[in-house]
Amino acid sequence: QVQLVESGGGSAQTGGSLRLSCAASERAFTTDSMGWFRQAPGKEREFVGCINWSDDNTGYTDSVKGRFTVARDDARNTVYLQMNSLKPEDTAVYYCATGAIYCGSYFSRRTDKYTYWGQGTQVTVSS
């Protein structure tokens, strides 16, 4: 059972920055990626970005391109979500997840393709 532990959420003002971390207890799959998702009140969980463990390929939803960056630290089995130029519409609970999928494929944007999920961390952006 892979455990994902998130940290780094909190509050920021519009234009500010936050960095989320997701530490994995182990790698569960030979070919896997780490995805970031978010869920705002009353809305469905949506894809934010992802990164592969095997190469440097990343993917982002259009609304965060140029503002958010996903990176990883192999030695720590940790993936980061650097969020810059934050907007009030970025307010949500953010989740990391891992699954046997390739970041960059269509399936990497689907919540049902990820097997293990973190507990979620709240990000609140005020105007």
Observed structural traits:
single chain, mainly beta
Layout of SSEs?
Layout: E1 4-7, E2 10-13, E3 18-24, E4 33-39, E5 46-52, E6 58-60, E7 68-73, E8 78-83, E9 92-99, E10 116-117, E11 121-126
General description of the model:
The protein is an all-beta fold. The protein is 0% helix and 47% strand. It has no helices and 11 strands. The strands form 2 sheets. Strands 2, 4, 5, 6, 9, 10 and 11 form a 7-stranded mixed sheet that branches. A 4-stranded antiparallel sheet has the order 1-3-8-7, with no helix packed on it. Strand 4 (33-39) and strand 5 (46-52) form a beta hairpin. It is globular. The protein starts with a strand and ends with a strand. The mean pLDDT is 94.
Return the structural class: mainly beta
Strand proportion, as a percent range, falls in over 45%
Percent helix, as a range, is: under 10%
**Main beta-sheet strand count, sense and barrel state:** 7 strands, mixed
Molecular shape: globular
Please count the beta strands (DSSP E, at least 2 residues each): 11
Element order: H for helix, E for strand: EEEEEEEEEEE
| Straight-line N-to-C gap | 40 Å
Mean pLDDT: 94
Query: Given the structure, what is the number of helices?
Result: 0
Radius of gyration: 13 Å
Provide a compact summary of the structure.
The chain is built from no helices and 11 strands. It is mainly beta and 127 residues long. A hairpin with a 5-residue loop joins strand 5 and strand 6 (58-60).
